[in-house]
Write a structure and sequence with these properties.
41% helix, 14 helices, alpha/beta, globular, 3 domains, binds iron/sulfur cluster
Length: 386
Amino acid sequence: MAHGRSKSSTSVKDYHHDDVALQAFVAQSAGVPLEAIALAHIDSSWLYPGNENYRGLLKENDLTAEALARTDEVKGWIAQAQNIAAEPSEPVIETGDHCGTPFECGFYDHCSRNEPKPEYPVCWLPRFSSAKIKELAIKGVYNLKDVPDDLLNDKQQRVKDYTLANEVFFDAVGAAADLAAHDLPAYFLDFETIQFAVPIWKGTRPYQQITFQFSLHTLAVSGQLEQTAFLDLSGNNPAEPFAHALIAACGKQGPVYVYNAAFEITRIRELAECYPHLGESLLAINARVVDLLPIARERYYHPSQQGSWSIKKVLPAVVPELRYDALDGVQNGGMAMGAFLEGIHPNTSAERKAQIEQQLLEYCKLDTYAMVRLWQVFASRTDLKL
Ligand code: SF4
């Protein structure tokens, strides 16, 4: 009998080898005669031809010889585990990288219960390597206030200083200068996407990010603010209607503000590749993109951001009256994906679908309205009623 194992991963990872060796040992010990051992993983370059034809989605890797050769090693792991389980008390082991690699360990709260829980943890320092965090932990340094300044770059120093002082850093002059080159009308754009390990739409690839929703706020020269949205819950591939709607909504000129431009720019480029007849119009939007994230990073820091410049952290700091947690149902990108999947499911009632639609629209609208308000603060345009 052949024994196969498939992973939603797109390559064979190191830990899969141990996994396969262990499972092969267990199967054999349970009396299952194994003829071959293979690990299948998803081929992310494969294109779904449609009609439920999934041939080629999985790539098989024969690990028979390797797995069977490791029987003694596996026996050793089991003996070791049994010895530990037989000990009268739990082993003394510190938490570290091994607790999250390759997956989060379920015992983390237990193992870290006696470790220092500093008010200002060192991990709030942006782009501070885990090696440095470890080095400091060895010296008993867990709190930002104890981190020597000579280990910090300018941004990290700012996070340390303003966090400890509980003060806001805002270079208003610099932020306004960053935005001075861009006039009105201005557009504020945000996408929501979905990925499928097993594609459901013809012509799409595993894990391809498929755009199903956008929100766009438009600020006219007159100072009037309007919003348009696209959301496709039909259950068909939303990407082409999305691209058409995007081109129609974005006009021909004026900056297109996004927060973390790499995401939107890459999605637009992919759409242009997928639908070459729309390519020119799509790439013209990309040429107008202005990213608010680097401006936020450079010019603004509030201690409540805890070292992060995600819009979910920056918005409540800059515009406290706007909150994602006040939204009904969908409050983050992960929840938006879940809501989309439920929305396109054939068994979802029309009533529930209408509710999901409303929640998704509200969520994405807040993302772009958040950008409008951030822009307003950064551009020092308090003269506008937004
Ligand atoms: S959290 Fe898990 S991996 Fe980390 S020390 Fe505890 S048991 Fe080991």
